[in-house]
Amino acid sequence: MGGIQIEHVRKSYGSLEVLKDFSLDVSDGEFVVFVGPSGCGKSTMLKILAGLDAATSGRVLIGGREVTDLAPGDRDIAMVFQNYALYPHLTVARNMGFGLKMRGTPKAEIERRVADAARILGVEHLLERRPKALSGGQRQRVALGRAIVRQPAAFLMDEPLSNLDAKLRVHMRVEIGALHQRLGVTTIYVTHDQIEAMTMADRIVIMRDGAIQQVADPDTMFRRPANLFVAGFIGSPG
Ligand code: ADP
Ligand code: MG
Known about the structure:
The chain has helices at 42-50, 92-102, 107-121, 136-148, 166-183, 194-200, 218-223, 228-234, and strands at residues 4-13, 16-26, 31-35, 57-62, 65-66, 77-80, 154-158, 186-191, 203-208, 211-216. By secondary structure, it is of the alpha/beta class. A six-stranded mixed beta sheet has the order 6-7-8-3-9-10, with helices on both faces. Residues 42-43 line the site of magnesium ion.
C-alpha cells in the first residue's frame, strides 16, 4: 500500500528533453489518468514507473517503497498495454498464470487466482482456448486477468483500449471502472482520449511537452481549466 510517488523525474534522449521535472503523488487506491497529445511523454513516464526505462534524474516510489533502481520484476506492478502480447501457443489459463509461474507460485495457488480472475472478468468459459480463438474484447479481458492475478500494488495501463472499436471501447471503460471499484488497486491509466479521462479518472493529469499542465478531478478540470491548452484539450467552455 502507499500509492505512487513521482519526485522530480526528468528524462532526456540525447538533446531531446522528454520529461521536465515531473512530480506527482498518487494516493493508495486512486485511479489517475494521464492525458495529452501524442509525443508529450505519457508512455515514457509509465515506462520509468515500470522500470522499462531509466529516468535521467529523480525518484519513484510504489507502494511506499523506493523502486527507482529496481528491475521491473521487483516493483510489484502489473502493466497492461495496447498490444496485449498474449502468448499465442499458451491457453488463456496459462497466459493468465504465466507471470505467477515464473515467480515460483505453487500450482494450486495459481489455479485458484486464475479461476478468481476469470470469474471476475467473465472469461471462465474461455480458459482452455488459445488467443487466436478470442475476440478483441476477450483478449483485452485476458490481458487484464493476467495483470490482476499478480495482485500488484499498482496497475500501469498504456492506452489499453486503443485497439478496440468504438463500441467495445465504451464497454471496456465501464468494465475497467467496475474492476477498479472492486479491487481498489492504485492505477495510472494513460490515454490520448479526453473522454476516457473525463469518464474514468479520480484525477486527471494533463501533459504537454513533458510537463504537467494541470492536475485535478474531472469536474474541476472542466469548470476551472488552468489555461487555454487545458480548456481546449478537454473541450471545456473555459
Ligand atoms: P506519448 O506516449 O505521450 O505519445 P512518448 O513518451 O512515447 O509519448 O514519447 C515522448 C517523446 O520521446 C517523443 O518525442 C518520442 O519520439 C520520444 N522518444 C520516446 N522513446 C524514445 C527513445 N527510446 N529514443 C528517443 N526518443 C524517444
Ligand atoms: Mg504513448
